[in-house]
Design a protein that fits this description.
With 589 residues, the chain is of the alpha+beta class. The protein is 47% helix and 15% strand. The N and C termini lie far apart (87 Å).
Amino acid sequence: MGCVQGSTLGPILFNIYLGELREKLSDAFVLSYADDSYVGISCKLKDLSEGITKLESIAARHIAWLTEMGMVINFSKTDSDFFTESEIRSALQQIKSTKAQGHDEIPSNVLKDLSQSVIRPLTRLFNLIIETGIIPKGWKVSRIVPVFKSGDKTLVSNYRPISNISSISKAFEKALITKLQNFLDHDILFGSHQHSYRPHASTTTACVVIQDYVASELDRNRLVLMYSADRSSAFDLLIPNLLVQRLVELNIPSRWIKCIQNYLTNRSGFVDVTGKVSTLKTIPFGCVQGSVLGPVLFNIYTNQLSIYTQGAFNVSYADDSYVGISCERDNLITSLNDLKEIAKSYIEWLNGLGMVINKKKTELIIFGYSSMKVNLDFGGEKIPNSDNIKILGVQFQSNLKWSSHVNKVIKKISSLSYSLRVLNCLLNRKQHKNIINSHVISQLSYALPIWGANISHEENRRLSSLMFKIVRLHYRDFTNILSNREICELTSIRSLTSIRILADCNLLHKFIKFPMNSEITLRLIQQTSFSARYPNRLIFFYFSCKKIGKTSFINRTKKIAERIPFEWLNLSAFTFKKKMKESTPIYLP
């Protein structure tokens, strides 16, 4: 059998033997060179899922015809594989190295250590999952560990169910997320209002958008009415069939949708409390908390918030939403009714998704010095306005001052003083410093670009004094012999001003290097121009010189940018942070 390789006539006979391929696949583009064939079709972007289905049908006919001719396809060399080995390697590198185990009892750090040995079989396995749309049953079993949130420890509702799932499943989910993010723009996929579970966004970026909106409206002598809405057990109430409809509307390819639907259905789990486990129970609803894919699917599920709050400003982080409108000072009551209608539409939309609002956690605030006390009818519940509102851990006051937040930070750090004094005698210096960084510096630096530059001299003095007191405790300088500068340099713990400058520069670099939100990007474009002398150089300028707006982060970009060499703006996040740390003094008054 076969034609003679190396002969003159053999290749010609081979071409004649396979000459019918173009006729058999007449509805496709076909190009062949010897035994290599390339088959394709064209379609519109909106018809992509139908195009993939058609190509799969053509491939089936191609394979059937080759089988009739006594030939087989080398699938290991086809270019139709959904995942490549490099993509799976990248996914394995991105999953967190922990000892937490799923149902298969394989920790992720073990999987990462063996990555070179398992790359090829995992790539083949993941591609088979996409081809068949079937997730292995073992990946659908969750080991659920209840994590205490706050309140009464005897109430089950005060615990968050965290699912420990298969580490291999996490690698697959990470690879699939990358495909989803490359397929659609992040604002289309998640909604421009959403700041959670998306690259380079955070609670700080969400607070920046809110601060900028409120400050710009107050500078126009307007009021801002805003309510916060917390969804009860939102992740546990996701309905798979409704999510599938949303994926279809986004023109996600049918193979991906089939795989995601299978991932969410027929799931089960058992609760593990200090080694004692419950019986296996079916989980009919929800996305998996603790998984990699679950939070992304939740964002897609709720990405239509802007449609149902039309005419209002809105920002979300996971299941927390903040919705507001602005109005003239003499138009407060009318605007309050408008906000009531927006809240009604918002609640109806959430109910349609199978979700409910925790009305006890809903707050209302009127920014702009209004002393009038009003109530918002929020789904039948009367919500009174307050002088401050907690937004993602930051206390926003109605006059956009920050004394409430400063007092909260001071109170929290002061409560740690006794524990730090006790640990000072028990731990070595490195361990004690780690405690300070994780419990003190983290409190001081959280969302610092939002409020750090806007506090009064007295508030700054109180924070700095408390911080230096703890640093002296760490160095055991109980008699205050050393200056603040010396104590910072000896302990390598930065002063509050130094921490703030680094935080400001890192955030500005993130906004410029990794645009993650259309609202922030548009505001930055409004405040930049290009230098005539240096065509590629950005020039920042003040967008608002009024009292309130000029202190918001967006309006401080000119001053922040002056500390950054222009060529550093194009560096990676890691390299930029390293260079900024090296160039910024540890102590700044």
